[in-house]
Amino acid sequence: KPEIGIDLPDDLVFANAKYKALRSLVRETFESFLRSLNSQSLRWLEQQFEIHGALNSGDFLRVFARVCPRLDCIHFPRYEERKVAVHLAVLKLFEGMDVDQSGEASWMEFVEFIS
């Protein structure tokens, strides 16, 4: 099984640059997800909420990672590294939606967030 994570260089300057690149990739992934929403992906997401109800962070990650784009990035050539960026972007979305800090996100919270 491939190791999940980000390989950081030992050199502090290069590690800092890679960390900044990761933050940038997470932001770009988050924005790309919001731009790429269409009627088909919204309907599928709505069905997931209908089936599961409000989603905790783990379920939210599992569901939303399926529709979140994995962007190519020269700083993160491995699929596993880009997957980390997707997970961080999805968790950023969850935190932004869970304004009542209930630990769960509902379909209505999602709709309000993207409106």
Structure commentary:
It is a single chain. The protein has five helices and two strands. With 115 residues, the chain is mainly α. The protein has a two-stranded antiparallel sheet with strand order 1-2. Helix 1 packs across helix 4 and helix 3 crosses helix 4. The relative contact order is 0.18.
List the helices and strands and how they pair.
Blueprint lengths: L11 H25 L2 H14 L2 E2 H9 L13 H19 L6 E2 L1 H8 L1
Antiparallel strand pairs: 1-2
Helix pairs in contact: 1-4, 3-4
Provide key terms for this protein.
mainly alpha; Recoverin, domain 1; 5 helices; 2 strands; 65% helix
> What are the secondary-structure elements, in order, as H or E?
HHEHHEH
Largest sheet: 2 strands, antiparallel
CATH architecture: Orthogonal Bundle
Strand line-up in the sheet with most strands: 1-2
Question: What's the CATH first level?
Answer: Mainly Alpha
- Helical proportion, percent range: 55-70%
> What's the gyration radius in Å?
15 Å
In CATH, the topology is named Recoverin, domain 1
Tell me, what's the shape?
elongated
> What is the structural class?
mainly alpha
Oligomer designation: single chain
Low-confidence stretches: none
